[in-house]
Amino acid sequence: MSLSVPGNWTEDSLRIGENAELRVRVYRAAGTPRSAPLVFHLHSGAFVAGCLACGEPVASLIASAGATVVSADYPLAPEHRFPEALNLTFAGLRALYKERAKWAGRGSPLFVAGEEAGANIAAALALMARDQGAPPLAGQILLSPMLDPCLSTRSIRDAQAGSVGCKWADGWHRYLGTADKGAHPYAAPLGSRRLQNLAPALVVTADDDPLRDESVAYAKRLVACEVDVREIVLPGPTNWPDALGLRPNVEPDWMGPVGRLITEFLADPLGSAASVHTEHSIRA
Hints:
Number of helices: 9
Largest sheet: 9 strands, mixed
Shape: globular
Structural class: alpha/beta
Distance between the termini: 13 Å
Order of helices and strands: EEEHEHHEHEHHEHEHHE
Number of strands: 9
Radius of gyration: 17 Å
Strand order of the largest sheet: 1-2-4-3-5-6-7-8-9
């Protein structure tokens, strides 16, 4: 599987209001049918950094897995604190679904996807879509989701990160503004007490990922709430965290296996049966 889809992305925008637009980059591999899944993608950057170009490695991987990917240039903190970016991206998701025939096929299943802070927003979008009854989501693809504003997990401590002086701590502080916002389930989905009836999830992390434990914890909480989940932990060392923001055309060893997992998930988010939940590791 090739990581990049050179020449197969275009710049565009989603109209999300009378005078507002959300800039996007659209990825479609050669030969992708119009009926292919449609994926709304959010890049990483700890809420305060990142751009459309930074999201290219993961967006390209998902496109290579057989989807049409619309990657959004969402507003960043601290200029835009929670819930501004989330509300804007939810408006973009609704607009994408409403105009899905423009981007893919009218019957194309709709997914949300993201890495790190983008996976936080993607998970929150799934919660909002459930709560508002629309748009209908076929699944959520969460790569190393950033979900715990307390930064209290062992994997964070092992990475010598913590409540101050690391990009995740600074990102959370600038995104939330005040600590009380961290209790909102849309800001920190890991703390949500109501995770039932969400779209099926593919959660991918790695042994050497500082966000590993919160990713695994979220997958377990989803399973406990009877959400169909495929949890994948890549055995280390993978250099996984750095790889999420790799330069285009750089393909680490794990990209092929993860790409195949995404292909399988896009084709059948529920797996062989709606009640099946998997939790395992794979070799790159």
